[in-house]
Amino acid sequence: MDQTPLSGIVITGASSGIGAALAELYAGPGVLLALTGRDASRLEEMAERCRARGATVIAETVPVTDVDGMHRFITGVAAAARLDLVIANAGVSGGFKSWDDFDAYVRGITSVNIDGVLNTVNPAVPIMVRQRSGQIAVVASMAGFLAMPGAVPYSSSKHFARAYAEELRGRLAPEGIRVSAICPGFVVSRMTARNKFPMPFLMDTAKAARIIRDGLARNRGRIAFPWPMVAIMGALGLLPYPLLDWLLRRAPGKD
């Protein structure tokens, strides 16, 4: 009897967008896909598509903001399979209508984009250290390279996501664990569909997922794309701060 353990892959935010596309890419025989998402019906639909590809699938609507729930979810996967890959993909964006709502709005964004990353990644770390193997991917954003006034606090939360992944990469390398920061530009999704401003180099979701999968297979520390957007962000970062500040203040904001 084959005793080869299943390869456990955790993906948050898997009911749509990049998370859903990644789930389909990784689905296959010998894989235990553990998926979370906010929309139960879309999540179950994605789970069935992955099962049709031969994967064993666990799909739950546990919020990434639930510390204990995410800990149980991650450790439960590790009890059923070798924890090979954790992709902290869940994220939210948006805007606020009144300064009276500002505090609640900021905390709502950061609870998902910062606390959600910690609640997904941190329980996996000691498990992977004991295994002496595993890979962690944190989905940040191209917005995580500059402090963008029109994207408060989305930009700063993605700064954290990118920096946390890059710090962990160096710290966990001696433990045999690979870590990558994923920094996409504009990708077709329910989130970007709300944007009312031009989105240069808007990329198809399936193509973005393939770039991410290939970058993770190569153990790239920073998976940033598309390259024209990477070049633009790099050039902006070289500007004197007063000029950069002037330009970023005129960038469109999120609604």
Cα distance spanning the termini: 56 Å
Overall outline? globular
- The helix content, as a percent range, equals 40-55%
Poorly predicted ranges: none
User: Major sheet: order of its strands?
Assistant: 3-2-1-4-5-6-7
Cα gyration radius (Å): 18 Å
Structural class call reads alpha/beta
**Biggest sheet features:** 7 strands, parallel
Mean pLDDT: 92
Task: Tell how many strands the DSSP assignment holds.
Answer: 7
Describe this structure in words.
α7 (205-217) links the parallel β6 and β7 (222-225). The relative contact order is 0.13. Helices cover 46% and strands 15% of the residues. With 255 residues, the chain is of the alpha/beta class. α1 (17-26) crosses α7.
How would you describe this structure in keywords?
single chain; 255 residues; alpha/beta; 7-stranded parallel β-sheet; 9 helices; 7 strands
